[in-house]
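FYI - complex with adenosine-5'-diphosphate, inputs then prediction.
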Amino acid sequence: MPGSAGPLKMLPIQLLRKVSLFQGLSDSQLESIIELCTEETYGAGELIVQEGEPAKNLYIVREGKVALEMSVRLWPEQRLREMRVETLNAGQPVGLSALTASNVWTMSARAIDRCRLIAIPGKSLLQLMDSDPVMASEVNRELSSVLADRLRYTRISLTEYLGHRQVAREEAPEESTAIRRIQYGINFRWIAVVGVVLITLTANLIFGISFSTVPILIIAVIIALYNLAFWRYTERLESEEDAELIPKVRRYVWVQSATDLVATTAIIHFAGGVENPLYLYYVFHVILASIILPYRSAYLLATFAVGLFTSLVSLEYLGLIPHVHLEGLVPPDLYRQPPYVLAVLFGFGTTLYISTYLTTAIAGELRKRQRETAALRDRLLVEAEELQKANAELVRLDRLKTYFLAMASHDLKTPLAAVQSYLQVLLGGFVGDLDEDHQRILERCSQRIRELFDLINRFLDLAQIEKGKVVEDMDMISIQEVIECCAEEIGVLAAEKSQTLDVDLPVDLPKIYGSEKHLKQAVTNLLSNSVKYTPEKGQITVCARRTDDQVEVEVCDTGQGIDPDDLPFVFDQFYRGKGGDAAHGTGLGLSIVKRIIEAHQGKIWAESPYAGGQPGSRFVFTLPVGQPAGLKVFGD
Ligand code: ADP
């Protein structure tokens, strides 16, 4: 039900003029339509017009989106599905059936989000059009063009829908193979015709079994003729796109099987009745039908076969129809010997039912498996679709993140740089002398801004590394040069604290596959931490060695060390250890190092105290030698 309805006095003419249906109407004509308008609101998912029921109101979408939907049933047993034909936006008309004859085609209209609609009662609008033929001709002209458009969209949507894998999903597997199985049956019948002719002639001419071959040969011709008809019909059936195809195929199999059974009975009759051991050929028909038909139909057919044969044998036994004796094969009165006749009928009946049971059971099992496979395929399709959606969402979020990073780096750093340069101007005394207090406060400000810069830079670094920049940047590089370069840079800082920085590198250190820029960043972070957390005159050592198929790099210091409680967390983002409080920092340095090393498929760990009970800290990371397989880009 609509959320609210009320008269619309204030509806501007301009709004109606934009509606395609009312184009070409004069202001006074539009005003007379406005008189009829009310407003209705619908919540997301609410039905506005129901398919199959002509709309009472013509609606114009004022706000929100409306979906035009049609019910589609792909196969007789399948449930109806709503197919979206078109999405309508503001200004577009809904419920055209309010203006057309009631039997003209209708579609469901459903609010996609919260919608405001202008409602014009169809009857009143039609009356208005009756009284104003100019208006009627204008509106009808536009109406037919909108209707034509809708039909065109419907056709496009239907074609897409049917071409889409939905069809593949909904088609039961046995349905797709039913026609192929009928073709097997037809081929089998050709062989049977030839077989009947050959067996008849062989028995008669070669083995000297005397019986009249003419009726049997006539029946063989009849079978060939009706098989020809079946063959033609099957070809037509195959090219048909009929929703009722499967029930049709089943009925058709029934007719074929029943015809075959009657023909077989006729042949058996003219070829000796119960005397002829080939009566067991009935089994073939029953097996073939049991493969295609449902259980019940298969048993019904088996019963029909038993009935036909029993009737034939009984009628011959009772002398109601003539009996053909196979002279030279069996004694003449065999068909009148009750024990023999009963034994044959018993054997025949049980053979048929057991064959039906076995075949339907196996065919049923196969059908079940086919359905399970199809269901599995459906599920995979759905999951693949969901994964695709999730992936698209991730790509969107990644773009958003890139945008945010670009924005953050520009919008945060630019004003900070400006403030910093103003502070430098003040501190440099370029705008006059500062007293001591002012100088101290401004220096603190400057220091704080440097820290903030540092934080922003590290934060952006961390995000950049996540973006897979490390992997993109990789090449064969010398880790030795990386370490030496970093040690040279940090050596200046160490010297300021009178610390010794030793570099111990073997000459045969192999090249590695990595990002020079990022590895420099990692080693610099580790070394600058050591400088930071080691008191004056302390010792810092950086060394590297090759172990098996990797290079191990180690940064140790004789500093304050890491508290055992902090040790497991020092690589976490924003984690600052107890010992870190005294020094300035962001808690991001080590997490950046970890990301860089892991992007290289290496490992990193910290020890404190380290080997031999040394008091300081030791950071070790490994890097594979050569290009590791399956290097992953973060965020991919
Ligand atoms: P920050 O140094 O900015 O605090 P880091 O991520 O680089 O952040 O380090 C995290 C914490 O690990 C530091 O707060 C400190 O407690 C500890 N730490 C890192 N390197 C050392 C070191 N060489 N010696 C002692 N503690 C260290």
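Residues 488 and 617 are 21 Å apart (CA to CA). The longest helix spans residues 338-427.
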